[in-house]
C-alpha cells in the first residue's frame, strides 16, 4: 500500500512516513502542539466595528474558542455583548474545533477568513 | 441507493443504545431505563427526561450535564459516537461496557471542559452548523443548506428529534444532491462531490483529525477508507481498526459509499480509530 507523505513540515514529520508507527506513537505525535501560525483575516459584517488591523497570526493548535475570545478582547467587548463568528460567510464552527483543521479545510490563499457580526448572520 | 443500501441506512438511523440514567443523588429510586437513538444527542435526551422526572421540571436544561465513569460527556457529539468511543477505549483495557450504559445526570458544578449551555436551541444551532460545514466540504459552499426553505429546515430538525427517517431524507436528498456544481451550474461530468465530510477520533484525548480528503484518488479511482485515513494521518499503523455505528469497517470500503450510507444525520462520517 502506498503511503502519501506530507509536503509541508508538520509536527507529524517527527515520524518517518514510510514506517507505520504504533497507534500510541501516532497519538503522541498528534497531541504535540502545532506551534505553526495560521493567518486569520477578520472581516466585519453589518454594523460590527472594523478592526484597525484585520490580519493576525494565531497558533494553529488553538481551538476556535480562543479565536472568539481573542476577537472579543480586540473589540473590547464585555462578556454579554453579542458577537457571532463565521468561516467564509458560511458556517459557525463549534468552539472546540481546532484552528489548524479549519485552515486546512476552509482556508483561502494563505489565510482563513473569519467574518464577525453583532447579530446572527447566517443562522 | 440500492435496496440493500437503503436497508443499511435505515438500520443506522434506528440504531439504539439501552441506557440507565441515574440522577446525581444517592437515592437508588432516582433512576430511569430507556433506549436512546445512536443518532441523537444529550440535549434531546435532557428534553425527554425533563418531562419524565418531576424534580427536573424547574431545572434550567442549560446546566444539565452527564458523566460516564467519571468523565463528562460531550453533548455536541452524537450518542452513538460517544458510546463507540467508550467501547473502544474499554476494549484497549480488555474491559467491556456493561449494558445498560449507565449515565449519571448532574444539575450542578458544570464542568469547564464541556461547551456551554446545552439547550435544545443551542443543539439545533450546532446541528445546523455541522450540516453547513459538511455541505461546504462536499460542494464548496453552503448553498444547498441555505437554499432549503424555512419549512424544510424545520422539517429536518423535527425529523431528527422525532426519529422520522422518511421526513429527514425527503429534505436531506436535496442537500446531498451532487449534481449541480458551484454557482448552481449543471455540471455532472467534472464536478462530483469535492471533499469528504470526515472526522477521525483516536483514543487518549487525541485531538480530532479533520483535513481535506477527496472522494477520488489522484488516478481518478474511487477513494477507499484505508487510503483516506492515511491521507489524513500518513503514519497510521496498518493494523488499525475503524468503527462506525458500533461496526468495524474493512479498509476496502469505498469512501463515497461510506459517506452516503454511514454518515450521521449531520452528514459527517464520524469514525472511531482504535
- Largest interface in this structure: A-B, 38 and 39 residues
CATH superfamily of the domain at 37-117 in chain A: Phosphatidylinositol 3-kinase Catalytic Subunit, Chain A, domain 1
Q: Residue share in helices of chain B?
A: 25-40%
CATH topology of the largest domain in chain B: Ubiquitin-like (UB roll)
CATH architecture of the domain at 37-117 in chain A: Roll
Subcellular location (chain A): Preautophagosomal structure membrane
GO molecular function (chain A): Atg8-family ligase activity
Function (chain A): Ubiquitin-like protein involved in cytoplasm to vacuole transport (Cvt), autophagy vesicles formation, mitophagy, and nucleophagy.
Membrane topology (chain A): Peripheral membrane protein
Structure characterization notes:
- The complex is a heterodimer of chains A (123) and B (274).
- In chain A, strands 2-1-4-3 form a 4-stranded mixed sheet.
- Chain A is 23% helix and 20% strand.
- Chain A has helices at residues 23-31, 64-74, 99-106, and strands at 37-44, 55-59, 84-87, 111-117.
- The longest helix of chain A has 11 residues, at 64-74.
- Chain A has 123 residues and is an alpha+beta fold.
- Chain A has a domain at 37-117: Ubiquitin-like (UB roll), CATH 3.10.20.
- Chain B has 3 domains: 3-106, Ubiquitin-like (UB roll) (Roll); 120-184, Serum Albumin, Chain A, Domain 1, CATH 1.10.246; 198-273, Phosphatidylinositol 3-kinase Catalytic Subunit, Chain A, domain 1 (Ubiquitin-like (UB roll), Roll).
- Chain B has helices at 3-13, 42-52, 79-92, 120-139, 143-146, 150-161, 165-176, 225-232, 255-261, and strands spanning 16-23, 31-37, 65-68, 71-72, 101-106, 198-201, 242-244, 247-248, 269-273.
- In chain B, the strands form 2 sheets. A 5-stranded mixed sheet of chain B has the order 2-1-5-3-4. In chain B, strands 6-9-7-8 form a 4-stranded mixed sheet, with helices on one face.
- In chain B, β1 (16-23) and β2 form a beta hairpin.
- The longest helix of chain B has 20 residues, at 120-139.
- Chains A and B meet through α1 and α3 of A and α4 and α8 of B.
Amino acid at each position: 500500500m502506498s503511503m502519501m507523505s506530507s509536503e509541508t513540515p508538520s509536527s507529524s514529520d517527527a515520524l518517518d512516513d514510510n514506517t507505520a508507527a504504533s497507534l500510541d506513537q501516532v497519538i503522541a505525535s498528534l497531541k504535540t502542539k502545532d506551534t505553526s501560525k495560521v493567518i486569520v483575516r477578520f472581516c466585519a459584517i453589518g454594523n460590527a466595528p472594523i478592526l484597525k488591523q484585520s490580519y493576525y497570526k494565531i497558533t494553529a493548535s488553538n481551538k476556535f474558542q480562543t479565536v472568539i475570545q481573542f476577537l472579543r478582547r480586540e473589540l473590547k467587548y464585555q462578556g454579554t455583548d453579542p458577537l457571532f463568528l463565521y468561516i467564509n460567510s458560511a458556517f459557525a464552527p463549534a468552539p472546540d474545533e481546532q484552528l489548524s483543521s479549519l485552515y486546512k479545510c476552509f482556508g483561502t490563499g494563505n489565510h482563513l477568513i473569519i467574518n464577525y457580526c453583532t447579530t446572527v448572520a447566517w443562522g | 441507493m440500492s435496496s440493500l443500501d437503503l436497508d443499511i441506512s435505515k438500520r443506522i438511523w434506528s440504531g439504539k443504545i439501552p441506557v440507565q440514567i441515574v440522577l446525581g443523588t444517592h437515592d437508588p429510586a432516582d433512576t430511569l431505563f430507556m433506549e436512546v437513538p445512536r443518532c441523537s444527542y444529550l440535549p434531546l435526551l435532557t428534553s425527554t427526561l425533563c418531562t419524565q422526572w418531576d424534580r427536573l421540571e424547574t431545572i434550567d436544561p442549560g446546566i444539565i450535564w452527564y458523566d460516564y465513569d467519571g468523565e463528562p460527556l460531550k453533548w455536541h457529539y452524537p450518542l452513538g459516537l460517544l458510546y463507540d468511543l467508550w467501547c473502544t477505549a474499554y476494549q484497549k483495557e480488555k474491559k467491556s461496557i456493561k449494558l445498560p450504559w449507565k449515565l449519571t445526570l448532574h444539575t450542578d458544578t458544570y464542568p469547564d471542559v464541556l461547551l456551554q449551555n446545552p439547550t435544545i436551541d443551542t443543539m439545533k444551532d450546532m446541528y445546523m452548523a455541522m450540516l453547513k460545514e459538511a455541505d461546504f466540504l462536499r460542494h464548496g459552499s453552503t448553498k444547498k443548506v441555505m437554499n432549503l426553505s424555512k419549512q424544510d429546515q424545520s422539517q429536518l430538525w423535527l425529523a431528527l428529534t422525532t426519529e422520522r427517517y422518511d421526513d429527514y431524507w425527503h429534505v436531506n436528498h436535496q442537500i446531498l444532491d451532487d449534481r449541480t456544481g458551484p454557482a448552481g451550474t449543471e455540471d455532472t461530468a467534472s464536478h462530483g462531490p469535492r471533499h469528504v465530510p470526515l472526522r477521525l477520533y483516536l483514543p487518549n484525548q487525541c485531538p480530532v483529525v479533520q483535513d481535506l480528503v477527496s472522494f477520488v484518488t489522484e488516478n481518478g479511482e474511487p477513494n477507499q477508507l484505508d487510503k483516506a485515513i492515511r491521507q489524513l494521518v500518513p503514519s497510521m499503523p496498518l493494523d488499525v481498526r475503524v468503527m462506525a455505528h458500533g461496526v468495524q469497517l474493512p479498509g476496502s470500503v469505498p469512501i463515497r459509499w461510506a459517506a452516503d450510507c454511514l454518515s450521521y444525520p449531520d452528514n459527517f462520517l464520524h469514525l472511531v480509530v482504535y
